[in-house]
Amino acid sequence: MAATASASLGDFEDALASGMNDALVKPFSVLDLERMLVKHLPMKGEQTTELGGLKTLINDEALHVIANINPGSGVDLVDQVITLFKQQVSLFIDDIGNATRKADADKTRRLVHTMKSSAMNIGAEVLGVRLAQIEAASRDAGQTLTPDG
Fold first, then answer.
1. pLDDT by residue (tens digit) across 45-76?
2. Residue 38 placed within a domain
3. CATH number of the domain that 120 lies in?
4. Which among 1, 58, 91, 127 is placed 20 to 30 Å from 43, CA to CA?
5. Residue 36: is its pLDDT beyond 60?
6. Cβ contact 78:123 at 8 Å
7. Could you read off the pLDDT of 91-104 as tens digits, one per residue?
8. Is the dihedral of CA 80, 109, 136, 134 positive or negative?
9. Is residue 77 part of a domain?
10. Residue burial 47-76, b: 16+ Cβ < 10 Å; e: rest
11. Is residue 146 in a domain?
12. Residue 82: which residues within 8 A CB-CB, separation 6 or more?
């Protein structure tokens, strides 16, 4: 997937021509990203919960744990964590695109490992599992780093 600041048809076509499956226009929401992941990364054989036709990708229990870290502080820790995760996702998409275009398996592995940990920490378990698969593939230089690989 590509992330672009421009919504022009030419940018979308360029993304597809460079091997991307689709493109998200920045800024995008977590829901936009979720829809894109559901569209392009189906979880065969895994149980998912349907919510309005969309697979639920966040385990709410993780967010409840975060919310209860310091409930009396008046700080919305969940909102802060989600905001930081969204910022990290945007950077990750750009960085992983660059690393895979350069076929840099080591950098891909490091980026994916970091994002996997962040995803699991906020309860994005489906994403975390997919990132773990990409991380494992990136350890073997003989494997492709595509969604089908």
1. 554 444 444 446 677 788 888 888 887 776 68
2. yes
3. 1.20.120.160
4. 91
5. yes
6. no
7. 898 898 888 788 88
8. positive
9. yes
10. eeeeeeeebebbbeebbeebeeeeeeeeee
11. no
12. 30, 122
pLDDT at 23 over 60: yes
The phi, psi pair for 55, rounded to 5°, reads: -70, 135
- The pair of three-digit structure tokens given for residue 25, joined into one six-digit string: 């226009």
Sign of CA dihedral 78, 44, 20, 38: negative
Residue for token pair 């940990």: 117
Q: Which 8-state DSSP code applies to residue 24? A: E
Range of the structural domain that residue 48 is part of: 2-139
pLDDT at 25: 76
Q: How many structural domains are present in the chain?
A: 1
Does residue 56 form part of some domain? yes
Q: What's the pLDDT tens digit per position in 126-148?
A: 888 888 888 887 777 545 444 44
